[in-house]
UniProtKB/TrEMBL annotation:
The keyword Membrane does not apply. Residues 28-62 are annotated as: Disordered. It comes from the Bacteria. It comes from Actinomyces ruminicola. Keywords: Signal. Residues 28-60 have a biased composition (Polar residues). InterPro entries: TAT_signal (IPR006311). Residues 1-31 form the signal peptide. Transmembrane segments: none annotated. This is Lipoprotein LpqN. The keyword Signal applies.
């Protein structure tokens, strides 16, 4: 019996993540090059880039130790990624050399990366090591201007039967005190478990919401760790 290829697995992973992200953000009203992140001070603040919280609190976005702030290309928001990760923006999609450098460093499939760049404004990924993959993909949905409720997200996931298990939806706050909705789940992709945490928060720079899709094949705890670093930094 023929076994699914790695490319098929990666495409399936992307399709599942995208479908779940659409559930998370639908239903409401309507870096210039590949780079390796360099470590910054633990006390670095991202408040200036991300704006102040509307609630007037003194909270400040901070980048945890071992992480570096990277800026989204299309809005005034920065977020934390592990130092040493590779980044690629949607503006790099037509640059074959940059895309090739990214895929070679991360071990990700070139076709899957190009497919993601049609939807996401930034891709961040760990340098290839053993058979573990970790990614943070970010996009802005300008057609939605409010966060869906926990009940709406949970109900739609059950109705659409996306195959996610251990689904958990919760409400939290970012480093600047803004409201955020998180959704965590795991999914079996052709015999390999992938652990995902998604973060939805309002765009501090204008209309729309910002969606972070964090995936790891290491563990659910690792995906949550990456998510918590992002939340503290935005």
């Amino acid at each position: 019996m023929a076994h699914p290829s790695r490319r098929t697995a990666l495409t399936t992973a992307f399709a599942a993540a995208l479908a779940t992200s659409l559930v998370a953000c639908s239903g409401s009203n309507s870096a210039d090059s590949t780079s390796t992140a360099t470590e910054q001070e633990n006390s670095q603040t991202a408040t200036e880039a991300n704006g102040s919280a509307d609630n007037g609190s003194d909270s400040a976005a901070t980048v945890p130790d071992g992480y570096t702030a990277v800026k989204l290309p299309d809005i005034n928001m920065s977020f934390a990624v592990p130092s040493g990760w590779e980044t690629l923006t949607s503006t790099d999609a037509a640059d074959a050399e940059r895309v090739s450098a990214f895929t070679q460093a991360t071990g990700l499939d070139a076709d899957s990366v190009q497919l993601k760049l049609e939807t996401y404004s930034m891709l961040c990924a760990a340098v290839a090591q053993s058979d573990t993959t970790e990614e943070i993909d970010v996009r802005v949905d300008a057609t939605v201007n409010e966060l869906r409720t926990e009940e709406e997200i949970s109900a739609d996931n059950k109705e659409n039967g996306l195959g996610a298990v251990d689904l958990s939806v919760s409400t939290t706050t970012t480093g600047t005190g803004a409201e955020a909705r998180t959704m965590s789940y795991s999914i079996d992709l052709l015999g390999k478990m992938q652990y995902t945490t998604m973060i939805n928060t309002l765009n501090p720079d204008g209309n729309g919401i910002v969606l972070f899709s964090i995936t790891s094949t290491a563990s659910a705890e690792r995906a949550q760790e990456l998510a918590e670093a992002i939340l503290s930094s935005i």
